[in-house]
Amino acid sequence: MIKKHCRQGFLLVLFASAVFVSSLGAQKSQWEGLNRQLYDLYQGGSYAAGIPIAAEAVRVAEATFGLDHPNMAISLNNLAEMHRLVGQFAEAKLLYDRALRISEAALGTESPLVATTLNNLAEMSRMQEDYGVAEPLYQRAISIRKKFLGPEHPDLAQTLNNLALLYAAQNMSEQAEPLYQRALGIYRNALGEDHPLVAACMNNLAELYRVRGAFPLAEPLYRKALAIDQKQHGRDHPIVAMNLNNQALLYAAQSKPEQAEKLFQQALAIGEKVYGSQHPELVTTLSNFAVFYQEQGNYRKAETLLQRVITIAEAALGAEHPNLAVPLKNLAEVYTQMGETEQAKQIGERARRLTASR
Predict the structure, then answer these.
(1) Alpha helical stretches, state H, 22-111
(2) What is the pTM (predicted TM-score) of this model?
(3) What's the domain range around 90?
(4) Does a structural domain hold residue 289?
């Protein structure tokens, strides 16, 4: 299952710089140019490629503005975001903490810059399933954004949406639903009906309804989100692939296998076109597609897809990484269902060993 959060944590440095930067000539221009380049990479999902650009922006910010300037905090936050988005959480945490200290010292403990960094720290904790750490960070960010930006600002909607994601991950549907609806209303009023952030929050709310089994509520939201993203990004964009994946899960849950298979195939084809056949971004769709085939009794196709997942994960993480335990366990189940008991035993033992290493 993919739950797409509204990607607004990256600081819009080209706008923020107007608040903090005086005319500093060539170095300022260099910093702004790096920020433009970095933001384009961020928008395109090229996070790993953004890390050296973001690191250079930090270096230029330090030389141009000094260690304690808010623009230094902005660059540190942006570098942290790049690390967070590729799963390098230890590196990101150090950078976020440093950015937070600088912004609090320079601007006070309740500035919008502080709120952005708090939101991003919370996002990282949510991604690590450290929900007890994430929730108060989100709540603090919400309080600051309400106070300084007002109750109808898109940045407030961002944190409301992300807190809803936190609650949804804990099966707290009643707490998540009103936050999604409030965030969606803010985005619609502030940005218009066809904005990508409207689509993102629609998709999240649809996911909540799908998990709850409220399929008639989920389907029109999925369809609308897909239409917006196809219009705004084009038909071959990774966000469109995520929408197709999620709608395929809905059809699978509704026992509509032909529709589900078609959408999984479309989502996978987009991912392969954008990233290539062995990229980690394919893992979610491959895994969901494999489970679909397993549930349909098409074990050979499930086996093929799970073997791809394992190959990709091994290349990205190493053969002994604990995250391989889940696809290995799923593959062992497939072999058991096919009656290939020796294969199932070997794969299952490897999965258990990796699970124990967590």
Answers:
(1) 25-43, 47-65, 70-85, 89-107
(2) 0.85
(3) 1-107
(4) no
